[in-house]
Amino acid sequence: MIGLFGDLSSIWAGLISGIVGLVFVGYLANRILKKDPGSEIMIKISKSIQDGAMAFLAREYKSIGIFVVILAAIIFFGVAQKTAFAFIAGAVCSILAGYIGMKIATKSNSRTAQASIKSVGDAIDVAFPGGSVMGMSVVSLGLLGLSVVYLIFIWHGLKHQPDIIGAILEATQLIAGFSMGASSVALFARVGGGIYTKAADVGADLVGKVEAGIPEDDPRNPAVIADNVGDNVGDVAGMGADLYESYVGAIVSALVIAAAPNPTIDIKGIMLAFLLCAWGIICSIVGVQFVISGGAKTDAQKAMNNGMTVSAILLSIGAFILCKVWYGNLGFFWAVLSGLVAGMIVGFVAQVYTGGKAVEDIAKAAKTGPATLVIQGMATAMKSTVVPLIAIAVATIVAFQTAGIFGIALSAIGMLALTGMTVAVDAYGPIADNAAGISEMAHLGPEARKRCEKLDAVGNTTAAIGKGFAIGSAALTALALFTAYAQTIHLSVIDALNATVIAGMFVGGIVPFVFCAETMQAVGRAAFGVVEEVRRQWKEIPGLMEGKVMPDSARIVDITTKSALKEMIFPGVMAVVLPVLIGVVLGSAALGGFLVGSLITGVPLAIFLANAGGAWDNAKKYVEEGNLGGKGSDVHKATVIGDTIGDPFKDTSGPSLNILLKLMAVVSLVFALSIDKMHLWLSNILPFLR
User: Fold this and answer.
1) Cα 522 vs. chain centroid, distance in angstroms?
2) What distance in Å separates the CA atoms of residue 616 and residue 645, rounded to the nearest whole number?
3) Which end of the chain has the lower number of beta carbons within 10 A, N or C?
4) How far, in Å, CA of 456 to CA of 436, rounded?
5) Cα–Cα distance measured from residue 307 to residue 285, given in angstroms and rounded to the nearest whole number
6) pLDDT tens digit string along 93-146?
7) CB under 8 Å, gap of 24 or more: what pairs does 215-221 form?
8) What is the C-alpha separation between 91 and 78, in angstroms, rounded?
């Protein structure tokens, strides 16, 4: 028992920092709720958005719960009882983080709109803390939950293990279930939320802007409330679940790799992951404070950049001290730093290719119609894959050369240690977007609307950075999890001359394309239902188009919710079944090829989709600012079409692809030994499979 408190002080540090993070979440939530929610009509609109978002979340979590129970039972009987417990714990913590973040985000929107009447700075002082609740909930519950489960496993292991080291190694073999639980929730949250938000968005735009010619967020459009709900379920809860999964996956991969026989790493190295992430939470808290302490004249983009910079500097200093002084290996620091720098580069490149000259060129291409706009946008997005992939490749090489295989996991941790700050910056965007919509629907006046639109424009930039970061972190996390899988099954090389490995690579390579096709078609089918219902209401409800009565927004929310929940099932099941099927039929080596193939095609495809959608969206906004003819022009109509095409790219298929790659890797890790046994049994029956 002494060892549980002495030798494992690093894990206790992770647990305590998680608690500190949750206390900070409580402080931020209290700060927001004290703000003025605005007029009666603003409160009513905000409540409609909140009710829709929470209703969707409740129904989505019910569906996820059924999936989690079934999969937990399979793990319980097919892998290990404790792994099943870890799986459930990982899922519950993810669900709890999403619930807390969504609750506060939907209470922040009207308060942000009300604050915008005074100044942009006052509005930021509501919107950013609202996003920070999601960000800090993700890292706090992730590290706290993982630390508690890990300590429980170690404590239980001490009952039959000869020493603390044996107990740690045993616990490490079981902890991967926590990451799989996080991945399962994340996939459904991203896919379901992404389908919902884009079905509502596409439906609202097609009927509202294109057919009826009415402004965005016009209260006469029944799909407007559903669109605002979608911003939250997709870009708050969905993004939070995505990076929660990456965050947890990076830590778990580090533990599994370090626990494998490795002469250069000891138990102290296993604990390093907890210390780095614990320090990352503190750095994120400091960064958030830098953003929300600027006062009424705060420049949103500058404040958030300053917050990220301060957090990154503090993390670098702490990582240097921990790796050099505490552990005595400076190579580990370079591995951590490589991931941190790569993450910043990926985010920066996303910003470059979804703004500035790149967007202006795409908008100019719309002068000759939507076809040339789409061509220019796709070409730009293809180019945008180059630098991020090189950055990830360089980070991988640096990490491996300085710290071996363990360095790859440390690089992923370096990229993800500031997840609290990263998610805060990203989740700010939907709150600002909702505030802009509420200011329009509540008729707050042109000045407040202008301030909200300014915040929304910054939110578009932060969203692009967030999506880029999410993709980069997914690549490194999936690579780290693959490395952990290879360690578990003692796979030292991927033999490209082995026929089954080649087959695995090809099958893995096509999975991202099939997955994206399914999610895009799902958005199209769900959007069709929204379009039909909006048309029906305009036709059958007297006085709706004249603004004399309010639309039945709840009906749209219900239709979109049902469609999203139905459509998310197949992609989710595919992510779990395919790796197991490939491994059982073709063997563990082929499964390794499968994971490599999916990673090679999936990462550039995700970058392409995210940046294409973001660029088309910003091209539309560029025209709406009065450029190239402004709103209502032929150029504007072309950009609306481009934005509509890009919506499922950037908010459904691209982000969901991140999770697909990580989930397939962690499923392979959790079921690795069971897959080996099943393949051996099958190959005895069918010798040609050997």
Assistant:
1) 19
2) 8
3) N
4) 7
5) 10
6) 999 998 898 889 889 989 988 988 888 888 888 989 998 999 999 999 999 999
7) 215/440, 216/437, 216/440, 217/436, 217/437, 217/440, 217/441, 218/440, 219/440, 219/441, 219/547, 219/550, 219/551, 220/544, 220/545, 220/547, 220/551, 221/534, 221/551
8) 19
Q: Which two tokens mark 375?
A: 């061509």
**Highest mean pLDDT out of 180-184, 446-450, 605-609:** 605-609
| Residue 657 main-chain phi, psi, to 5 deg | -60, -35
C-alpha neighbours within 13 Å on the C-beta side of residue 218: 18
pLDDT in tens, 72-91: 999 998 888 999 999 999 99
Distances (CA, A) of 131 to 14, 127, 427: 23, 6, 4
Q: Domain residues for 615?
A: 2-689
Structure-block tokens of residue 599: 């990673």
CA atoms within 13 A on the CB side of 664: 33
Q: Tokens in use for 509? A: 């390579």
Domain count for the chain, please give it: 1
Cβ pair 179, 241 in contact under 8 A: no
Q: How far apart are CA 601 and CA 605, in angstroms?
A: 6
**3-state DSSP call for residue 204?**
helix
Name the amino acid, one letter, at 457: A
Separation of alpha carbons 551 and 219, rounded Å: 8
Token readout for 476 is: 């490194």
Distance CA 341, CA 395 (A): 8
Residue among 547, 648, 640 at smallest CA distance from 205: 640
Q: Are 223 and 200 spatial neighbours (Cβ–Cβ below 8 Å)? A: yes
